[in-house]
Each structure stands twice: as structure tokens, then as C-alpha cells.
Amino acid sequence: MGRKLLWGSLALTPVVLLARYAFGAGDTTVFVLSALALVPLAWLVGTATEHLAEHTGPGIGGFVNASFGNAPELIIALFAVADGLPNVVRGSLAGSVVSNLLLVFGFAILVGGRHALDRRSLVVQLGLVLVAVVLWLLPSVPGWDGDPERHSLYLTTLPVAAILLGAYLTITGRNLQRHRAAHDAEAAEEAWSLQTALIVLAVATAATAIVSELLVHTLAAFGHALGLSEFFVAIVIVAIVGNAAEHGGAVLVARRGDMRLASEIAVSSTAQVAVFVAPVIALLSWLVGRGLPLAFRPIELATMAIATLLVGAVVLGGVTRRWQGAALVGAYSLAVVWYWFAGDR
Predict the structure, then answer these.
(1) Higher model confidence: residue 268 or residue 131?
(2) Could you write out the DSSP letters of every residue in 250-316?
(3) Of the options 1.20.1420.30, 3.40.190.10, 3.40.309.10, 1.10.3720.10, the CATH number for the domain spanning 2-181+207-342
(4) pLDDT digits over 282-291, tens only?
(5) For all residues of the chain together, what is the average pLDDT?
(6) Which of 175, 48, 191 is nearest to 118 (CA)?
């Protein structure tokens, strides 16, 4: 019954488009419909990733899920740069790192319980995130005094982005080779074909991008109606919505007992945001508008670093326990309270 309901609720995607473009529905209505439509889309991405992992193993499956899941975020961020919303872009990037590590990984552990992890793979990716946070200090610290959008900070951002992008491509390539070599390619009898899984992932991701864009464009009005700061909307709401596919996918596969795949989805997505998506946005930002400096606020850098260290402590243990998941979700709740009181720049 649950699966039939999820398949049926995929119809919410065309409903959102009709409500917006055919009937001219208001921002609040579009926001609610878009948020509801993202739930079955996230489930579909998670299901397709599970079938893909039957052919590739959890390491590559998690990487592909992260790649498809982060594609809408990259597109949305470039639209936001073009619209002159640099603080929204930086806030959503920082929020993605924190929410993927604390909220998604935490909930996955809560529903998945005690399971062994691929410690080597996860430690490498968490190390990449920490390196990114440290390198982001170079354009960020000067931005704490004066205009964080000044061109000199963008020039400082460019080599940092290039270094992070190069490191990500090199290390991720080696990591995927290890996963492929270690995987025993015995697909389950009921698994979709590799081609079917990839097609479903592509279609679900495209739909997620469209729905997410509609939702983000209505967030400003929604946040204003609730009295929320632009920073809070970006770092909490946009970040969670932009990563709905990974959020739903990781929790779904964890509930089914595949914690290795769930952990790879959450941590791979985090590393991809920090060391791939953010640098690519910075490097491409001048094509769609003014160059975007990766000049993060202290609260953004601090919560990203703390989240990485907390998850690192869990991963180093090699085995997940439900109390650890509760602790990570609790830490995210504290971060949200901190974001609420921080306000805009």
C-alpha cells in the first residue's frame, strides 16, 4: 500500500506545474505543493539508487546518488547567483554540508540501527570536507571585515576552487576504482537493469530540479510571511529542500538495512557539495552574473567543521549505534537554533 501511494503521488509533479503556470497559484500554495512533490521524487531516486548499487556496489551507488541528487542544487545555485543572491548560495552550500552530515546521516543511523561501515571510504571523504573548510578561510576571513562580495575575494576564491576541484576528481576517481574492484558483481534477481536504473535516476533528477526551482522561487515570499531571515531560509530550508533526494534516499535504504549505502549517500553528497559543487559554482558564477566569492560567515564555517568532526568520530568507530544517530540529530537541532538567532549579515 505504501509503495502504491508513493508511485501515485508522483503525479504531484505535473500538479505543481499546472498550479503554477496554468492556474497562477500563489507562492504559498506552490511552496506547499512543491515540498509535497519532492517526497515521492526522493523515494524514487533512493529506489533507483538501490537497484543501481546491485550492479556497482554501495560505494559507487552512493556516489551516483550524490551526483544526481546534487545536480539540482548546482542548477538552483547558479540561478540564485544570476538573481543576485550570493548569501543565499553560500548559506545553502553550508547548510547542505551540515544537514547531510548531522540530519541525514543521523536519521539514517536512527532507522538503521547497528551496522558496520566502510570506514576507509568515509574517512577519506570527510577528510576532503575538512580540507575544504580550512581552505575556505582564505577568502572568508578578509570578508568578515568589509564587503564580502568584493572582487579581490573572488580572485582569492579561484585558486582555492581549482585546488579543491582537482583534489576531488583525483581522490574520488581512486576511491571509485577501489569500490569497483572490491564489489562482487552479483545482481539481485529482482534488481532493475543498469540501464533502467540510470534512466529512472535521470528522469527523477530532472523532475526534482524543476520542482526545486519552483520551490526556491517561492521561498522568499514564504519566509517573509513567517518572519524568517534570508540566512535562515537559505541555510535550513533551501539546504534541506535542495538535498531532498539524498535525504529521502539515505533514510530509505538505511531502513531496509543497507547502512553502507546509506552512509555513502550522506557522506558522498557532503564531500561533493564541499569539494565539487561549491568550486564549480564559484568558477562558473562569472558566466551567469557577478563572480561569487566563497567568503563564508564564521557561523557557517564553524558548524561545517563541527559537523564533520562529529560524524568522523562515529565513522572511526566503524559501527553505527542508534544513540549516535540521536546525538547527531540533536546537534543539528542546536545548529538550527544558532542559525535562527544569527540573522542576516
Answers:
(1) 131
(2) HHHHHHTT-HHHHHHHHHHHHHHIIIIIHHHHHHHHHHHSS-------HHHHHHHHHHHHHHHHHHH
(3) 1.20.1420.30
(4) 998 988 878 8
(5) 83
(6) 175
